[in-house]
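Sequence in, structure out.
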Amino acid sequence: MGDVAKVAGVSHQTVSRVLNNHPNVSDSTKARVEEAIALLGYRRNTAARSLVTRQSRTIGVLACETAQYGPANVLLGVEQAAREAGYFVSIANLREVNRGSINDAIAHFRNQAVDGIVILVPHPHILAVLENVSVPMPMVAVGSGEGNRLTGASLNQRLGARLAVEHLMDLGHRHIGHVSGPPHWIDAAERIKGWQDALTGAGLKADVLLTGDWGAASGYQAGLALVQQPHVTAAFVANDQMAMGVLRALHEAGLNVPGDISIVGHDDQPESGFVLPPLTTIRQDFEELGRRGMSTVLGMLEGKEGAGQGVPGPRLVIRSTTAAPRR
């Protein structure tokens, strides 16, 4: 910084003000300092800066299941928001989700002196462990649903499921099955509840519930099972990957979609508009979920305590896999 100050013809303190975006620096002085920085190739010593400010400018991210579409895009949103705010992220990606691995990850973040922690929470037992963990930095959970002290941002999974089922009921369907994700996932459990709520609220039975693992192969197996339920004229599938497997199974069984059976997916993955037939689905903004979770933890660092942030609600995307049932 001393070399930069000498080349720019300013004081050491002025260089510091420019680096910290202090408002009391004229445009001409700022330009001279920035020119000197570029000329000398100056880079901040982040370790030394952390000692002075007592901030690492790093956010710990505790994640798991990031091979799945939803968690992967939530993580992308977290990283983008952190970078835009001038923070780095340190990611602990859990292969096994248990009390020991979660506590080890939190201890790792504490040793790194991260400024805050964002938890991507697909499983409820992660919350159960973290509810009893005390850390000296802000910690928020993303995608955890409502009703716990760690919630930083969440999607309304139950509403998305209801939109899917209500669309099918509006078309005239009365026997609507559901292919769920793994029951130990928060998202899967909430979508089951949304499916049940919509049907029972209309006086209909929620009696055909099949379970998958989010993958297309499990959707294919669920599709074969749907073929054995001839009274079912429509199905809500908990994600688009499984819905693609369902579509293949129905096609191989000689059933027409949507002529014989209508299908609605969930998530609106990039491929969903390009399968045959193009998939009617529910769109969610996973990246925005991650961004708002990061915004919550950064707000807490600035002393802005408050409730978690919701994300713009899900919306129905109608394509070609839904139609009125044949009479």
